[in-house]
Amino acid sequence: MSIFFKNTSRVSYFNSCEKSSAYELGCTLTDLIKEQVLLGRTIIFLCIGSDRATGDCLGPIIGYKLSKYKKYNNYHVYGTLEEPVHAKNLKDTIDRIYQTHEDAFVIAIDASLGKSSHVGYITLGEGPLKPGAGVDKELPEVGDIFITGIVNFSGFLDHMLLQTTRLNVVMAMADQICLGINYSINRLRALTLQ
What is the secondary structure of 41-75 as a DSSP string? Predict the structure, then answer.
């Protein structure tokens, strides 16, 4: 569960209920990372969350889905349903990423809380996110780019909101985010092959 920093130069919102959201997300993501791929940097998808709370499982579900896609040398996924990245292992995972991939460009993916009118929206922006901030946990900031899915509204007893989040909301966003990422990866690979 995260919040993102508003000092980023651009934050885009996508309604996961709209059919064009995956395409629009993919195009915007491509624009944000195109230069990094052309520079030969390794792209890391860091999918944060726990599979033990419905509202917090967006990251591991996305990681699981991304890990099933065709493997490419300069794209790596950390955080799946089998091996989630959560509060207890986030710092160690970040350290491992930068030890393994010196040129890592990290795209941090996490669930978030927001206004009730924004539930079901996906956010994409430049800069780090702060995992755990939505539930008052002190965790390290991470990411060059962030993708969040607003899974529930923020309010009293945020921990309980994570337990009562509808799985349908999480799965719909996970599907759209994965389709957008896959579209972006394919566009970026076409650019590097030219």
Answer: PEEEEEEB--TTSGGG-HHHHHHHHHHTSPP-TTE
Residue 24 CA from chain centroid, whole number:
16
Type of residue at 95: D
Q: What is the pLDDT of residues 46-65, one digit of tens each?
A: 999 999 888 899 999 999 99
118 φ/ψ angles, rounded to the nearest 5 degrees? -105, 0
Alpha carbon distances (Å) from 34 to 3, 26, 191: 25, 11, 8
pLDDT digits (tens, 9 = 90+) for 103-153: 899 999 999 888 889 999 999 999 998 887 655 677 889 999 999 999 987
Could you confirm whether domain 2-188 is CATH 3.30.70.1060?
Answer: no
Domain positions in the chain: 2-188
What is the pTM assigned to this prediction? Answer: 0.90
Q: Is 161 helix (H, G, I), strand (E, B) or coil?
A: helix
DSSP H/E element including 110:
strand 104-114
- ∠ Cα 70 124 166 (to 5°): 80
Are the C-beta atoms of residues 139 and 90 closer than 8 Å to each other? yes
